[in-house]
Structure formats: structure tokens, C-alpha cells
Design brief:
The structure holds two protein chains of two kinds. By secondary structure, chain A is of the alpha+beta class. Helix content of chain A is 27%, strand content 31%. Classes of the chains: A alpha+beta, B mainly alpha.
């Protein structure tokens, strides 16, 4: 069982501090997702927890024990890498057996665990193949199998789905979520994809430039973003941020309104604009509205379809209780 | 598949050229090995021209097999090639792993490491046998002499003198003597060819996947296990390449043997061929065919061995 605590952890490469002092608690059994744009330090943070990087200062605690100086293999964590990092010359069986072989487990016990892992991951037919003969999704499952057999205190996933195609990604996302529900082990998952974060996480940690912008459940983050960055980052399409006089009317420096909280009309409404590109997805339509005088572009999401074309006049009305207000420092009011 | 005619036709010149390249010398060697053909014979001047009338059947092969140097030449070929391969691969892997880490001055170190490979084989042999391995004038002679002087000086020292007085006077080894000249050849060729192995292994090491290593670290593999289970298998193919290329080159060693011992008690097959070719082209050709057979056996054996141990 794994409760992971970071206490004033910092990390510098040379003179550049990529992670300023940072505190974070991940409860036992929690599915925590680190999300943020490229280079925000989320992978570094994961590697600090794994022990693949040394903390410049501060401590990492697992179940209350300080493990900052403990070697990666002794921390009892298992990691799944973006590139799978399977051992290419070993069969799937040997790949999964490798951590047990290193810890000197008996052959019989190894075999039992391999079979159990292979069954739960649908890999039984592939045990004697080499990673090169497997598809991306199968390789990722082997990597997960190699992590499972170690009975880790926590699983660390470093963008595990980034190398898969879109359809597989959705499938693997479900598999990992189900695995978490079944095993109840702590999982830390790094991704830049906010859809993955929203769908999988118990707790999302939004990072920017090594700083935690907000920690909370997916819906917390969606309904109550603490600052402009989180507001813009969580949700797809992005929240519209308006800084003009319209914001002052609400006694705020910036107001934000999500595309799905705008109603559209061709006859009347609060804001007026011209239709730019309309993206018809069938279930939804995204309309990019220009010339509103509010921002360069306002995105609207309506369910179903609407008969508008490029250049048409359109009226938008925000739902009053869904307007997010931010002060001059970008913090939520 | 009529539409394949044109591509095949276009490939033909290259294929024919390659076939000629290989088949002409081989069939001429085969032909000469079955006839009597000498460069100079006053009693039988007809043997000095290659002709089917001088057919000897397997006579040349019998003659070669009965030659007192033949078995020694085969043994020597195998011992020399085997030892050089063993040493260059081990040294090559160790040095490549060592200099794969970043350290100050690694550019210069790498250039220096490669430099022995640019020395000509004959120069390499002269350099080693005269300047390094010579029992009197070479570094070896000087070093042995120095150690002897040092020890004899310590014999009179208080307390420890009795210990050093038990030491024998060291004798320098003469590498031109028949039994040791093969060792000299092995040393000098290993020195020259280790850089080749290092170069190939180093490029291969740089393409090693670092995430695999990190995964192995998390899986509890120590440095040795990472080397054994990741780096060594990763080097399997380059090792096979190094072994194959070097086996081809070292089966035909000549200059080093000529310079170290002039073949005294240390012939290999090419050297034997060279000796026969002074006059008896038929016997030289028969030896050449034996060399081809030996090379093939060595190649098959090596490929099997490497394939099994490293490529799992």
C-alpha cells in the first residue's frame, strides 16, 4: 500500500531550477494524474518519485518512510514508460519475469505470477513472442505486466499512451482505469492529454513550469478552476477568456466562459459576431465566432447541428451562473 | 511474371560481374590444384606450363597433406585467429563501455584509441618485434633488466632482503623463438585490431535505449546485470560483425609472420601457400583450396556460436 508524500522537493539542472519547492500528498489507492504542457516538469516529478533523478533538496516519503536516498529498485515502485522500454531480445515471458529473476524468486513462483499477469492482460498467446512481433498496444500491456508482477506499492505511468493511435488509446485508457479499480493500488499517471486526465483521475495535479497550479478532482477543476491557467488548460475546446470592458461589468479583470455554456441564436443575444469556421462533429458543432469585440475568437459548442455558414451573423448569450471571474493576477474571484 | 524480364535483364551485368569476380579465381585455383604446375623444373620443362595434359588428380592434395608443416599451419591459423578474436572482442567491449561515458578530453582519447588501426601491418610488426618485444633492445629487455637490477639492489636491504634474495633472476622472453613467435603475432595484431572493435561497439552503445536501462534499474538489476542482460545482447550483432570481418582478415595474416619469424615453426596457411608458390603452384593451389574449406568451417562455427550465446 502506498501513500506518497513530497516535502519541499526541488530539482535543479545546473543553475536552472526546474522544480521550485513543491509539496504534494498522494493518498493510498488514489489515481493521481500529473497534467500540464510540455516541459512543465511533470515527467521530472515522476522520475524524482521513482528515484531515477535525485532531489536537489527536500524529501520523498513512501508510507511515511523517507526514501530520498533509497535506490530506485528498493522503493517498491513500478514504472511504465512511454516507449515501453521492453527488453527487445527477450521473449514476453522473460520480459515479465525479469524483475522477479533479479529479486531471485523461484522459477515455479515466477511462472505462476507470469500466468496470472498474462491472463489478466490477455497476453497468454503471446508469451513466447518477442516485443518486436507485437503491436503497440500489446507492447504496452507487456510493460504493464512487467510492473504488475512486482506487486509494487504504486504504479508510475510516464505518458504510457502517447505512442498509441487514437482508437487504441481509448481502449487502453479504460483498461488502466479498470486495473486501478480492481487492484486498488496507488497510481501516478503523467500525461499532457487533459482528456486522459479528466477521464481517469481521482485527483488531478495541474503543473506549469514546475509549479502546482491546482490539485483537485476532475470536476472540481472543471467547475472551479483556481486561476486562468487551469481554466484554459482543462476542458476541450478551451475556455474563452475575455479581458475587455465586458469583464469589468462583472467586476473582474478577466472573465471566462466555456464554449458549452454559450447559447446561440441567429436573431438576438447578448454578444454579436460573425461565424468563422464551423466544425460539425455530428453530435456536436464547434463554431468559431469572430468580430465580437470581446476576444480574437470565441468558441461555441452546441450539441446537435445548426444551420450557419461562414460569414453569417450570430448572437451569443452566456449562461450567467457559469461565468468564471478572475482578478488582475489571474486568480479566481 | 513476364514483366519481371526487364528488371532481371538490368540486374544481369552486376550479377555476372560478381560471379566472374568470384568464380574465375576460384576455378583457376581448383584447376591448378589438380595439375602438375611448377615455375621451374629443368628435368620436366612441360610442367612449367599449365596444361590439362599434366593432370595429377588428388596428387597435389596428398602432397600437401603429407607435408610436415601442413597440420602445424592449420593449428597455427586457428590458434592465432581464435586468440585474436577472443582478445579483441573482450578488450573492445571493455574499452567501449569505459569510454562511452562522458569525461573531459574524450575526443582526444577516442582519436588516440583508434590510431593503432592506421598503422601498416608490416610497420606494426617491425615496431613490436624490434622496439617492444626484443629481449635485449626492446622495452621488454629494458624492463626485465630494470626489474632484475632493482631486485638485486633490494637483496642487501635490512629486514626484507632475505625475501628478495629468494627471487630468481628474470629472463627476458625471445619472441623470435619458434614456440613464442605466434604469441608475438597475437599480441601485435590484437593491439592493432582492438580499435576496430572499439569503434564498432562504441557506435552501437550510443544507440542503446536509455529507458530500457532505467526500466532495468527499477526492476532491480545492478550494473553487472544491466551489462549482462541489456548491453551484451545489444552488442550481439556488432560482435558478430567484428568476429566475421576479423576472421576473414586474420585467416590471411602474412606480413606479421614473415617479419617476426620468417615462418620458423610459426606458419599459418597463407604463409605455407606463399612458400609453395615459390615454385610449386599446384601444391600452393591445393593449399589454397584447403584454406577456403577452413575459412568456411570457421565462418559457420563462429556464426552458430555467436547466434546461440548472444541472440537468445
Amino acid at each position: 500500500m502506498g501513500k506518497i508524500v513530497l516535502e519541499n522537493v526541488t530539482k535543479s539542472f545546473g543553475d536552472t531550477q526546474v522544480i521550485p519547492p513543491l509539496n504534494l500528498t498522494i493518498e493510498d489507492g488514489e489515481f493521481a494524474v500529473f497534467v500540464g504542457p510540455s516541459g512543465c516538469g511533470k515527467s521530472t516529478l515522476l522520475r524524482l518519485i521513482a528515484g531515477l533523478e535525485d532531489c536537489t533538496s527536500g524529501d520523498v516519503l513512501i508510507n511515511g518512510d523517507v526514501v530520498t536516498q533509497v535506490s530506485p529498485s528498493k522503493r517498491g515502485l513500478a514504472m511504465v514508460f512511454q516507449t515501453y522500454a521492453l527488453y527487445p531480445h527477450m521473449t514476453v515471458r522473460k520480459n515479465i519475469a525479469f524483475p522477479m529473476r533479479m529479486s531471485g524468486m523461484s522459477e515455479a513462483e515466477q511462472e505462476k505470477k507470469i500466468q496470472a499477469a498474462a491472463e489478466s492482460l490477455n497476453l497468454t498467446d503471446y508469451l513466447d513472442r518477442k516485443p518486436g512481433q507485437l503491436s503497440g498496444g500489446q507492447r504496452q500491456r507487456v510493460a504493464i505486466g512487467r510492473a504488475i508482477v512486482r506487486d509494487p506499492k504504486a504504479f508510475l505511468f510516464d505518458e504510457p499512451l502517447s505512442n498509441l493511435d487514437a482508437a487504441l488509446r481509448v481502449g487502453m485508457r479504460l483498461e488502466i482505469s479498470e486495473m486501478h479499480a480492481r487492484m486498488g493500488t496507488t497510481m501516478i499517471y503523467v500525461t499532457h492529454d487533459q482528456v486522459e486526465a479528466m477521464t481517469m483521475a481521482d485527483k488531478i495535479v495541474v503543473l506549469q513550469a514546475g509549479v502546482i497550479e491546482q490539485v483537485g478532482s476532475p470536476l472540481d477543476l472543471y467547475h472551479k478552476p483556481q486561476n486562468e491557467f487551469v481554466a484554459g488548460f482543462i476542458g476541450s475546446p478551451k475556455m474563452n477568456l475575455i479581458k475587455t470592458d465586458e469583464a469589468a461589468k462583472h467586476n473582474a479583470a478577466t472573465i471566462g466562459i466555456r464554449p458549452e455554456h454559450l447559447t446561440v441564436s441567429t436573431t438576438d443575444g447578448a454578444w454579436k459576431g460573425t461565424v468563422g469556421v464551423a466544425e460539425h462533429l455530428g453530435s456536436d458543432t464547434f463554431i468559431h465566432v469572430h468580430d465580437t469585440g470581446l476576444a480574437d475568437m470565441i468558441t461555441v459548442r452546441i450539441s446537435g447541428d445548426i444551420a450557419v455558414k461562414h460569414g453569417d451573423r450570430i448572437f451569443l448569450t452566456p449562461e450567467a451562473d457559469q461565468i468564471h471571474k478572475f482578478d488582475a493576477n489571474g486568480l479566481r474571484i | 511474371m513476364a514483366n519481371r524480364t526487364l528488371p532481371r535483364l538490368l540486374q544481369t551485368p552486376a550479377v555476372i560481374l560478381l560471379l566472374l569476380w568470384m568464380i574465375v579465381p576460384l576455378s583457376m585455383t581448383l584447376y591448378f590444384s589438380f595439375i602438375r604446375y611448377v615455375l621451374n623444373n629443368l628435368r620436366r620443362p612441360e610442367w612449367t606450363k599449365p596444361s590439362i595434359d599434366n593432370w595429377r588428380g588428388f596428387g597435389n592434395y596428398e602432397f600437401v597433406l603429407n607435408n610436415k608443416d601442413f597440420i602445424l599451419a592449420i593449428q597455427n591459423s586457428l590458434v592465432i585467429v581464435g586468440s585474436i578474436l577472443f582478445l579483441t572482442v573482450i578488450l573492445g567491449v571493455l574499452i567501449a563501455v569505459l569510454i562511452n561515458k562522458t569525461f573531459p578530453g574524450q575526443g582526444i582519447v577516442r582519436v588516440l584509441l583508434i590510431s593503432p588501426f592506421f598503422v601498416m601491418p608490416a610497420v606494426n610488426a617491425v615496431l613490436w618485434i624490434n622496439m617492444i618485444l626484443d629481449p635485449v633492445l626492446g622495452l621488454q629487455g629494458i624492463a626485465v633488466d630494470g626489474i632484475n637490477t632493482w631486485i638485486s639492489g633490494l637483496k642487501d636491504a635490512p629486514l626484507v632482503g632475505w625475501f628478495f634474495s629468494l627471487w630468481p633472476t628474470l629472463e627476458p622472453i625471445s619472441f623470435r623463438a619458434t614456440q613464442t613467435s605466434a604469441i608475438a603475432v597475437i599480441i601485435m595484431v590484437t593491439w592493432q585490431w582492438t580499435p576496430f572493435a572499439v569503434l564498432i561497439f562504441m557506435t552501437s552503445l550510443q544507440s542503446e535505449d536509455q529507458q530500457q536501462k532505467e526500466a532495468a534499474i527499477l526492476d532491480g538489476a545492478n550494473t553487472w546485470n544491466q551489462f549482462r542482460f541489456l548491453t551484451l545482447p545489444h552488442l550481439g550483432r556488432p560482435i558478430a560483425i567484428v568476429v566475421m570481418i576479423q576472421a576473414i582478415f586474420h585467416l590471411s595474416l602474412y606480413a606479421e609472420i614473415e617479419i617476426v619469424s620468417r615462418g620458423n615453426g610459426n606458419k599459418n596457411l597463407p604463409y605455407l601457400i606463399g612458400e609453395f608458390a615459390n615454385n610449386n603452384i599446384g601444391a600452393a593451389s591445393a593449399t589454397g583450396i584447403f584454406a577456403v574449406i577452413l575459412a568456411n568451417i570457421v565462418a559457420i562455427f563462429l556464426l552458430r556460436m555467436i547466434g546461440k550465446t548472444l541472440m537468445e
